[in-house]
Amino acid sequence: MDQLEIIESQSIFILREAYRGFKQLVMLWSIGKDSTVLLWLARKAFFGHVPFPLVHIDTSYKIPEMIEYRDRFAREWKINMVLGRNERALAEKQTYPDGNATRLECCRLLKSEALKHTLSGEWPRWILNHETGEYDRTEGGEPYTGVIVGARSDEEGSRSKERYFSPRDRHNDWDVGDQPPELWNQFKTDFAPGTHVRIHPLLDWTELNIWEYIERENIPIIDLYFDKGKGERYRSLGCAPCTSSVRSCSTRVQDIVGELRSGKFSNIAERSGREQDKEDGGGLESLRLDGYM
After folding, report:
1. How would you label 234-245 residue by residue, b for 16+ Cβ within 10 Å and e otherwise?
2. Mean pLDDT across the stretch 190-216?
3. Helix, strand, or coil here: 257?
């Protein structure tokens, strides 16, 4: 087996362990390259079917192409698609684009708080109706206790402290110092009632691994990652007001693989275009301690 086959096999094993161990299981889909690879792996793990819902936290500030891509593939792949949002913060314009919050405060409200209350079932959820193609509002529901996330340890410093199965408390708060050991592929999947567990099948993948796998599997990735003639593209995707592009002429997956192998970005953080990271002192730990993805 080559390296991609090894990590693919490990990730599929983690996904199946999660499905076996958690009754209320869900996967987060940010529409970026990592969570789309994770979705692809889930479809392989369960023979073309994803047996749990996907959740997207819609801040209403995503790049429009991301929403079009999300809905197109949710319909095509018959995904049980669930949206969450912070209706109150949006209605009261408690956001960075409205000038009433810092970037970090905006992230906490539109992402962390929306995620926390969507997962718990305290806030409404919008569920894709495959007959009408529209999202139907529902009033919450059962809490999701197992949450699959496409985080990688090499992407950002705080993520290197994660485990494959990482417990949070009932408020989604993360105690970095209280994580179970994971030795010799032995994973703890039985936790006390009320424990919220984040599951990270891509933890040991690298940015290069992701793009090599996209190339090998011919995964239909969103085209915001490619240069469209301006000599720039996105390397990491988030909300439009807080995400900037990088200088790159890559128009194909093969070009991005070549860039990464060449070391062009070896001294540039993958999330360097995400402005909220800079406001957080160069990292995401304070946001992630409070439940951010």
Report:
1. bbbbbbeebbeb
2. 88
3. helix
Domains and CATH numbers, the chain: 3-205+281-289 (3.40.50.620), 220-276 (no CATH)
Say how many C-beta atoms besides its own lie within 10 A of residue 224's C-beta.
Answer: 19
Model-level pTM? 0.88
pLDDT digits (tens, 9 = 90+) for 271-280: 877 776 666 6
> Can you tell me the distance from the alpha carbon of 115 to that of 216, in angstroms, rounded to the nearest whole number?
32
Contact 115, 172 (CB under 8 A): yes
The gap between the terminal CA atoms of the chain, to the nearest Å, is 31
How many CB atoms within 10 Å of residue 190? Answer: 7
Q: Mean pLDDT for the chain?
A: 88
Nearest to 56 by CA among 10, 120, 119, 140: 119
pLDDT for 293 beyond 60 = no
* Pair type for strands 196-199 and 146-148: parallel
Using CA atoms, how far apart are residues 167 and 145, in angstroms rounded to an integer?
A: 10
Under 8 Å CB-to-CB from 66, ≥6 apart: which residues?
31, 222, 224, 237
User: Per residue in 100-149, pLDDT tens?
Assistant: 999 999 999 999 999 999 999 999 999 999 999 999 999 978 999 899 99
Lowest mean pLDDT among 60-69, 178-187, 194-203, 269-278: 178-187
- Which run of H or of E encompasses 34? helix 33-45
Are 109 and 101 within 8 A, CB to CB?
yes
Q: Is the Cβ–Cβ distance between 117 and 84 less than 8 Å?
A: yes
- The pLDDT score that the predictor gives to residue 11 is 97
Asked if 1 and 27 count as a contact pair (C-beta separation under 8 A), the reply is no
φ/ψ (deg, to 5) at 18: -65, -45
The phi, psi pair for 130, rounded to 5°, reads -70, -15
